[in-house]
Amino acid sequence: MKRLKFIAILAFLFIAGTVSAKSDTTLCVQDTTHLIPFKSHQTVILGDIITYTGHVHGSVGEQFTVDIDDNGVLRMIDTEIDYEQDQSLGMSGGDGAWKTYLFQATKIGESTITIQEIFRGEVISERTITVIVEEEK
């Protein structure tokens, strides 16, 4: 009987958590725009989240940097790294990953994002993307 009560409580918490998670996501709906590296201009809406993802591999020397104008149009929120292999303690190698920069469009205007690909300390390519932030229509 105790086991049945435990299962019922567990099911209730699971359902309540799922409903709560769904209601939270509907309250803060924001569009996400993934920057296209070979496009020179992209338009987003005020409040949108903008991402850029590139490949890094520290032990090989593969890196990239992403810089934005300091004009308040875009604000860097965070960076995330998604490793291709398990990063357990004591495991060597396997540090290849996808690194994502997250920005938010905070002000109407234009901002330039500069992306540099670096290999063993040397810049091998550089490109810029102009992000135009507009009001929602």
Descriptors:
50% strand, alpha/beta, 8 strands, four-stranded mixed beta sheet, elongated, 137 residues
Report strand %. Answer: over 45%
Oligomer: single chain
Number of strands: 8
Termini gap: 58 Å
Low-confidence stretches: 10-14, 16-29
SSE topology string? HEEEEEEEE
Overall mean pLDDT stands at 79
Structural class: alpha/beta
Instruction: Strand order, main sheet: write it out.
Output: 1-3-6-5
| Main pleated-sheet profile | 4 strands, mixed
Counting DSSP H or I runs of 4 or more residues, the number of helices is 1
> Helix coverage percent of residues?
10-25%
Q: How large, in whole angstroms, is the Cα Rg? A: 21 Å
Shape: elongated
Per-chain topology:
Elements: H1 2-27, E1 32-34, E2 41-45, E3 49-57, E4 62-68, E5 74-83, E6 96-105, E7 109-119, E8 122-134
Parallel strand pairs: 1-3, 2-8
Antiparallel strand pairs: 3-6, 4-7, 5-6, 7-8
